[in-house]
Amino acid sequence: MQVARCSVVLSIAALVGAATAGTTSYMVDTAGSNVSAKVAFLAIGSKTADFPDVSGSARLSPTDPQRVDLDIKIDARTLTASDKTTQNRLKGEKFFWVEKYPMVRFLGSRMVLTDERTGTVQGSLTARGVTRPVTLTVAFDTPPADAGLGAAITLTGEATIDRREFGMKSYSLIVGRTVNITLKARLRPAG
């Protein structure tokens, strides 16, 4: 009976190892990463919020670039804006509602490269307790095919969302509905 259990445990370990073989794990370097969100304001200008506290992880496969696990966590409580009034409104119940929903999260699960350094990552964005599909257009400073060589990689990404889909419907006459998101994530090898 003990031999059978040992066989089952070894089989499960082998399956887990096979599933992650050929991938390189990274951690997001918070000091070298940030997110910004820009939205039209009064139809003549724009407002930008910066999110300096970004963390998470990534797994890239040098041999199969479509295999990607990207987990970006953004602490919305740390957001900053150009003025205190805007900052307080964005942190409040009508926008991010940081007391109830302190984290924004992007989970990327499939990447399609358009060349050795650029492509798209399909995934989902969760903000304010709402999850929606989002496509992140990405560029790498080092080709993902070079993952595993022990060097850090910087990923920059852009996405456009409709804020109303995340329950942020207030001030519709003065604040645009389309939000342009820019991500910079410095990925350092885990371990």
Automatic annotation (TrEMBL):
The entry's keywords: Signal
Keyword Signal: yes
Domain of life: Bacteria
Gene3D superfamilies, per database record: Lipid/polyisoprenoid-binding, YceI-like (2.40.128.110)
Limits of the Lipid/polyisoprenoid-binding YceI-like domain: 25-188
Signal peptide: 1-21
Statement: the UniProt record of this protein carries the keyword RNA-binding: no
Protein name: YceI family protein
Organism: Qipengyuania qiaonensis
